[in-house]
Amino acid sequence: MDLRTIFLFYRKEKFIFLFYTLGIISSTLSVLWGILNIDFGASLIPLQYDLIFGISRIGPPQQILYFPLAGMLILIVNFIIGYVLFTRDKYLGYYFGTASALIGIFSLLYMLFMTNFSA
Fold first, then answer.
1. For a FRET experiment, which of 10, 61, 107, 108 has its CA 20 to 30 Å from that of 76?
2. Is the pTM of this model over 0.70?
3. How far apart are CA 20 and CA 96, in angstroms?
4. Neighbours of 16 (CB within 10 A)
5. What's the chain's Rg over C-alpha atoms?
6. Rounded to 5 degrees, what are φ and ψ at 35?
7. E strands within 29-94?
């Protein structure tokens, strides 16, 4: 597992490049959105919203960044596992790339939705 083969895995496979880049961009945007739009001076903000019960969990503003940061960590782990599995089965690497893109998109949607409640 050297750096050159990892670079080739990321750059030469169109789907891998698309999915992981989408995941990286959306995860980064979700963290930046949260940092720019959350009032960190507030004592408590809503952290979870449910359609049936409304706001179901509140906490300190720093905790709202746990979800997108965990998504970034999962994206890194998915990239490593996807690289290892890609050498054995091409489509398993695609599945991990797709999962990374979806995690990044859902993380961005979470931040966009939750910042509306904390404002």
1. 61
2. yes
3. 9
4. 23
5. 17
6. -65, -40
7. 45-50, 54-59
